[in-house]
Design goal:
Among the domains are: 194 residues, tricorn interacting facor f3 domain (Immunoglobulin-like, Sandwich); 132 residues, Neutral Protease, domain 2; 90 residues, Aminopeptidase N, middle-beta domain (Immunoglobulin-like, Sandwich), CATH 2.60.40; 132 residues, Peptidase M1, alanyl aminopeptidase, C-terminal domain (Zincin-like fold, Alpha Horseshoe). Helix content is 41%, strand content 21%. It has 25 helices and 33 strands. Helix 5 packs across helix 6 and helix 24 packs antiparallel against helix 25. The chain binds beta-alanine and zinc ion (ZN).
Length: 871
């Protein structure tokens, strides 16, 4: 497979002044007539032929200035159209292609989802609609005429503003013309046609312009679109207030479809969403779903400035829009909800998804230097680590210079296809700082490991901190350089934070580590403190700090930084878990730790239930794997976690049931963060009760299912039951499956919950789930619910010693690759930690990967992941 390299970037040989698309929608015979106005780019190769990208296209005709071009004057394949004879001036090229949206199961380009015509063009889907210069630095103005059967598709939507609509005389067809005045790359193109319901309102922008905003959903689901509309309105207001960014078109439409590869897509003025991130009602969506909708709606909306108005020069710059936009949506959620709770949740996601990626065969820098399939780089590294780099930048230059830098970036790059260098340049200008060393974060893969040692000198009243940083080699990068690492810190005693008297620490308590090792000394330190380092997770690094449990408990109770309070408990628990995995019995120590958590719970449960729930949630299996590193025994990890939770439950038992009862819901459901926080603690308590007393847990869970007034309570109770084998569980599953048989998004939760049951019989259960009438291999949400949950979240069964878990995924991948390569490749990233597993597991995983690799006609997506995983 050809490799695309950043260093080979060359400007396009042609500009496109404008494009006019005439799309006549039909389930199997859609016609696309594209007229592009072209001229040579003076910066390109003056003798280059016109080479347009295609993908599985059927060409019907080619015209230049309205004249049919003879087939001898061009070379056309489904993958490209090369024209060698054309006028050396501005000219119109008209291309007609024929598409079959119904047969398009890759869900890239134009396809049908439940009868709705929709498109997905990022990264390279537009070339599946027409031949084009499908690269993000070719930006142009689009006018789209969309035509369809009036009954089949009464709603016709496009990018930009609506211009005109009407009936096609003497037919049952109608049309709509949309014009987008903002030049954009092809990946932001979109159309939708279907029989849709919508909710909408008028949004007044900060300069007083009226914008019609609307959320379109499948017929009959209009009552589930209100929260998305509300989140959209709040996002628009927030971007005005926080970054001074105003919306720029007369309309903004969001459309939810049920078959979608990604979460959502930021097409200009016409965001298309996976319905999972739009549809919500208290009966069908959990608190987590509501939070997800809020953040994805915000994310896609924020792309209007960070992604659309300023786009990427090439796909290597993907983090320019994604890392920055994730940062923006995280800040939005933090402002709308509890900032510490959001931050800890984001860090948990980063550690669970990005850290393993950075430590495995698929590790790559936030700005990768090369790719063979760009779809495989929509990763946790580009998105989540990319967001952390933006956050570090803010920490390093300060909030004022950061905001000024964003203004400079918006002013200087608006309307362009930009690079990371353009972005960082704006902050060099606003801060007056040289960011060239910081920029190495974008090119170096791997998670830096920081070791910190503290020494107190009681006589001199000084406290010294020694830092070292090391990053392990990653594929293609055998040696690593020291990075610029902002260390936000404090010195904590039982009376709280000490003043920081140290010239190396700025007024915000930040020390910048930019060497392999460095030390700092604090003066006037009145008593021996406990260092609190990497407050608020100030850098995406792993930290080793020699603190004993007593010190960590001091942080849990007294640290002014909520993240490090939470981290202190996590560190204690992780250490205990690792020792247990190694065969130690740590009962007495676990009990002591649990007693501290009991005290903590008594103090914080009432005032901050959401934070309490986070502290009481023990480290995940993935945290333990990362701590241990290699020769992983999944069964031992599972067992240790179970024992730890049992002991915690038993020590907390005096408060569990009373607190659980006191948090019972009164009044109607509201998805707000405070109410959700109470539910999260209550549901965690139910889980703890069941850990140690399954009879009591079963009884309470069944009662909670009966009394639940919303899906959060209902599903949490079902989750608790799912860990207790027996009739109660099976009956509850059956009931739930029946009750929601017509609710695919609800069934996805039910699919996933069953797929992660850590029991040998789960393989048969998965087989049965895929026989459910609601299951469809063609729908990414269903496949992710069953196989994604199994492979990513069922540690013991996916990594079974008999290899049957790996085989299950391999069998699915071989089948699915012919239908949807993008989803197949994504699922196979679950093999990313196969070399960490112990003995026989590795051999089974390798055999499964090799079996996939040996398939004929493997897609580029799947082949890329499999090859890199085996390398
Ligand atoms: N651009 C693809 C989906 C997203 O990150 O918004
Ligand atoms: Zn995005």
């Amino acid at each position: 497979t050809p490799i695309v390299r950043l260093e080979d970037y060359r400007p396009s040989d042609f500009h496109i002044e404008k494009v006019h698309l005439d799309i006549s929608l039909h389930p199997t015979e859609t016609r696309v007539i594209s007229t592009i106005t072209l001229l040579r780019n003076p910066a390109g190769n003056p003798s280059a032929p016109l080479a347009l990208d295609g993908d599985e296209l059927v060409l019907k005709s080619v015209k230049i200035e309205g004249e049919e071009v003879s087939p001898s004057d061009y070379e056309a394949t489904p993958q490209s159209l090369v024209i060698r004879k054309f006028p050396e001036r501005v000219f119109d090229l008209t291309i007609e292609t024929a598409l079959n949206p119904t047969a398009n199961t890759k869900l890239m380009g134009l396809y049908r989802s439940n009868g709705i015509y929709c498109t997905q063009c990022e990264a390279e889907g537009f070339r599946r609609i027409t031949y084009f210069l499908d690269r993000p630095d070719v930006m142009t103005v689009y006018t789209t005429r969309l035509e369809a059967d009036r009954n089949d598709a009464p709603v016709l939507l496009g990018n930009g503003n609506p211009n005109e609509r009407g009936d096609v005389p003497d037919s049952n067809r109608h049309y709509a013309i949309w014009h987008d005045p903002f030049p954009k790359p092809a990946y932001l193109f979109a159309v939708v046609g279907g029989n849709l319901d919508h909710v909408g309102k008028t949004f007044k922008t900060m300069s007083g312009r009226d914008v019609d905003i609307a959320v379109y959903v499948e017929k009959g689901k209009g009552d589930r679109a209100d929260y998305a509309l509300d989140a959209l309105e709040r996002s628009m207001r927030w971007d005005e207030q926080t970054f001074g960014r105003e919306y720029d078109l007369e309309v903004f439409n969001v459309v939810a479809v049920s078959d979608f590869n990604m979460g959502a897509m930021e097409n200009k003025g016409l965001n298309i969403f996976n319905d999972k991130y739009v549809l919500a009602s208290s009966e069908t969506a959990t608190d987590g779903d509501y939070a997800g909708i809020e953040s994805v709606i915000a994310h896609e909306y924020f792309h209007n400035w960070t992604g659309n108005r300023i786009t990427c020069r090439d796909w290597f710059q993907l983090c320019l829009k994604e890392g920055l936009t994730v940062f923006r949506d995280q800040e939005f959620s933090a402002d709308e909800r509890s900032r510490p709770v959001c931050r800890i949740s984001d860090i948990k996601t980063l550690r669970a998804r990005q850290f393993p990626e950075d430590a495995g065969p698929l590790a790559h820098p936030v700005r990768p230097p090369q790719y063979s399939e760009i779809n495989n780089f929509y990763t946790a590294t580009v998105y989540e680590k990319g967001a952390e780099l933006v956050r570090m930048l803010k920490t390093l230059i300060g909030a004022d210079a950061f905001r000024k830098g964003m203004d400079i970036y918006f002013d200087s790059c608006d309307g362009t296809a930009a690079t990371m260098e353009d972005f960082l340049g704006a902050f060099e200008q606003s801060s007056g700082k040289d960011l060239s060393h910081f920029a190495k974060w974008y090119g170096q893969a791997g998670t830096p490991h920081i070791t910190v040692k503290g020494h107190y000198d009681a006589t001199a009243k000084t406290y010294k901190l020694d830092f070292t940083q090391v990053t392990q080699p990653t594929p293609g990068q055998p040696s690593k350089e020291p990075l610029v690492i902002p260390v936000s810190l404090g010195l904590v005693t039982s009376k709280g934070d000490l003043p920081l008297d140290c010239s190396s620490v700025n007024e915000n308590g930040v020390f910048v580590l930019d060497k392999a090792s460095d030390s700092i000394v604090f003066s006037n330190v009145s008593e021996e403190p406990v260092p609190s380092v990497f407050r608020n997770f100030s850098a995406p690094v792993k930290v080793s700090l020699e603190l004993d449990s007593k010190d960590l408990l001091t942080l849990l109770v007294h640290d002014s930084d909520p993240f490090n309070r939470w981290q202190a408990a996590q560190t204690i628990a992780t250490r205990l878990l690792v020792r247990m995995v190694n065969g130690e019995d740590c009962k007495a120590e676990i009990e002591a730790f649990a007693s501290s958590l009991l005290e903590f719970t008594n103090e914080t449960a009432a005032s901050d239930p959401a934070f309490t729930a986070l502290v009481l949630t023990m480290p995940g299996e993935s945290d333990i794997i990362q701590e241990i590193g290699s020769d992983i025994d999944p069964d031992a990890i599972f067992k240790s976690r179970t024992i730890l939770k049992r002991i915690l439950s038993s020590v907390l038992s005096p408060v569990l049931v009373p607190l659980y009862n006191s948090l019972a819901n009164t009044g109607p459901y509201s998805p707000d963060a405070a109410s959700a926080g109470k539910r999260s603690l209550r549901n965690l308590l139910l889980d703890l009760i069941a850990c140690n007393n399954s009879a009591e847990g079963e009884k309470l869970a069944q009662a909670q299912i009966q009394s639940a007034t919303n899906m959060t309570e209902h599903f949490a109770a079902l989750s608790v039951l799912s860990h207790i084998p027996g009739n109660a569980r099976e009956n509850a599953f059956t009931e739930f499956g029946k009750r929601y048989s017509n609710e695919p998004l609800v069934l996805d939760k039910w699919f996933a919950l069953q797929a992660v049951i850590p029991e040998e019989s789960v393989l048969g259960r998965i087989e049965r789930l895929t026989q459910n009438p609601a299951y469809a291999i063609s729908n990414p949400n269903r496949v992710r619910a069953v196989y994604g949950a199994f492979a990513m979240s069922n540690l013991t069964q996916f990594n079974r010693a008999d290899g049957k878990g790996y085989d299950l995924l391999a069998d699915l991948a071989i089948k699915l690759d012919k239908i949807n390569p993008q989803i197949t490749a994504r699922l196979l990233t679950a093999f990313g930690s196969w070399r960490r597993m112990n003995g026989v597991r590795q051999a089974h995983a390798e055999a499964a990967l090799k079996r996939i690799a040996a398939q004929p006609d493997l897609s580029r997506d799947t082949s890329d992941i499999v090859q890199r995983s085996l390398a």
